[in-house]
Amino acid sequence: MEELIKKIAAKDEQALATLHSLMHRRITAFALQRLGNSQLAEEVMLETLFEVWNHAPKFAGGSQVSTWILGIARHKALDKLRKLQQGKPWLEEWTDEHLEIDSGEVESIERITNAELTTALHNCMKELPTLQRECLHLVFYQEFRLEDIARIQDCPPNTVKTRLFHARRKLRDCLAACGHGERS
């Protein structure tokens, strides 16, 4: 991906299109997790790629390209929240698209149970403080390392560990309260 950034720095539009196809879903999912609104998440994705286009020559290589890009996306999402002057992000209802389950050979009753658990998980994640929810998303959905999350969130790695510890505990407690506790 560093090669793509070099090409984008040279204003290669095809390289930007390639980056878009590689990062569109990741950026949008990251922003959606933060904003809770798919239209605003899409705007953040576009603004992020525009920022990458304008500032690619400034990429120093001190982190992974995806870490740098999601750091930009995070700042764009925070800016959007500030501009809307809301105390906390609003949350749209999760659609079937967010709750997709591969049917494969899973029996109907298992699909229903999985859908209920997925819905409960998403509802419990909505209850987490924003920074804890963001950490979980970056670890489990974006598969970032703690050091990269620390760069994105502009905090020490131990702070990320603490946020993840508390987020997992709160998720476990919330899921148990919803009837989805540990199964024997």
Description of the structure:
The chain is mainly alpha-helical and 184 residues long. It has two domains: 2-83, RNA polymerase sigma factor, region 2, helix turn helix motif (Rna Polymerase Sigma Factor, Chain: A); 108-177, Winged helix-like DNA-binding domain superfamily/Winged helix DNA-binding domain (Arc Repressor Mutant, subunit A). Helices cover 70% and strands 0% of the residues. It has helices at residues 2-9, 13-35, 38-55, 65-83, 108-127, 130-141, 146-153, 157-177. Helix 3 (38-55) crosses helix 4 (65-83). 25% of the residues are buried.
Largest sheet: none
The CATH homologous superfamily of the largest domain? RNA polymerase sigma factor, region 2, helix turn helix motif
Q: Which structural class fits the helix and strand makeup?
A: mainly alpha
Mean pLDDT: 78
> Count of DSSP E strands?
0
Examine the coordinates and then state which fold CATH places here, giving the name of the CATH topology of the largest domain.
Rna Polymerase Sigma Factor, Chain: A
Beta fraction? under 5%
Task: Supply the CATH class of the largest domain.
Answer: Mainly Alpha
- The helix tally amounts to 8
Stretches where pLDDT is under 50 for at least 5 consecutive residues are 86-109
